[in-house]
Amino acid sequence: MVIETQTLILGAGLTGLTVAAGLNRLGEAPVVLDKSRGLGGRLATRRVGEWRFDHGAQYLRPRGPQLAALLDALKVSSAVTDWAAVDDGAPAYVGLPGMSGLVKPLAEGVDVRKGVRISSARREQERWHLYDADGGLVAKSRVLISTIPAPQAAQVLAGHPLSDRIASVVMDPCWTLMAAFDERPDLPDISRAPDTVLPWIARDGSKPGRGTETWVAQASAEWTRDAIDLSRQDAAQALLAVMRDRAGGALPNVLHADAHRWLYSQAPKPLGQPCLVDRDAGLVVAGDWCLGARAEHAVLSGDAALAVLQDFAVAEAAAR
Ligand SMILES: Cc1cc2nc3c(=O)[nH]c(=O)nc-3n(C[C@H](O)[C@H](O)[C@H](O)COP(=O)(O)OP(=O)(O)OC[C@H]3O[C@@H](n4cnc5c(N)ncnc54)[C@H](O)[C@@H]3O)c2cc1C
């Protein structure tokens, strides 16, 4: 059945759910569509048996008041906690029981439809029409808020006058290793090594409530580009070999090793404005990539989109 609603949000990551939670507070009832089976987008947690791996964002650190306020609220819901291993001065926060848990309170009471992948969105007869890969009509709405990564948004909105600007934002790929060992490797909880194959190696199991030797390591964009066509298993083995070198040439027994390929992980050169707006068409395009490469930028972009939507509502009421 085709979904018909006033306001559709594409993407149930931190940007989309920031907008959705805000609209819900204002008494709107947006519908959120996401291709994944879970919530959170790049605030991601992979569960494998007893193990959990945060294979996307590693931790959140507020630089400004908006993310700080959100984290304070999420602490009350027991959805975030401090990760003491990041001991470089300022507190670092992680989701509970994994990073994806951080967005759950934002999604409370929101109509999220999971497993819905949109291939194109077109404005026809004063409504947004969203289609799947087979050209089937999935949803119709008056207002559309896209919060998906820039390259995906450019594809979905191909033909719209904003699509060239959206397509100008490049997002780096990132192979991420997820490994579990029977003992602790000879590495600190966190190793940062910029300009190497693995700029980030972390003992994910040192996050509160984990207590296992689970490790996450993220490859550089350069290495990932060269290795983009590897299978998951080959990427995992290649990154384990790099991790072994970093651990002095030996690792404990590997109980599990897999890799996840983020085609669009972070935008090194963001758009430079909080969101893009086509007021006449009822379109707002938002996402972390508008302002930066961190989760905080998702919140800032989501808040900016929300302010624009409130303007839409005021203008519409005045026109009636
Ligand atoms: C490897 C990695 C490490 C990172 N490390 C950190 C870190 O340590 N600290 C930090 O602050 N940030 C980090 N980030 C960035 C952080 O994860 C993002 O800034 C933030 O999660 C972006 O949220 P978003 O809602 O804008 O986008 P997303 O989280 O990408 O949400 C977009 C959603 O849209 C959905 N979607 C996409 N296309 C479609 C479609 N066609 N149809 C339907 N649904 C679709 C996706 O499934 C996804 O759920 C990292 C990211 C990665 C990948």
TrEMBL record:
One of its GO terms (molecular function) is oxidoreductase activity. Keywords: Lyase. The keyword Lyase applies. The keyword Transmembrane helix does not apply. It comes from the Bacteria. SUPFAM superfamilies: FAD/NAD(P)-binding domain. Residues 78-304 form the Amine oxidase domain. It holds the Pfam family Amino_oxidase. This is Deoxyribodipyrimidine photolyase. It comes from Meridianimarinicoccus aquatilis.
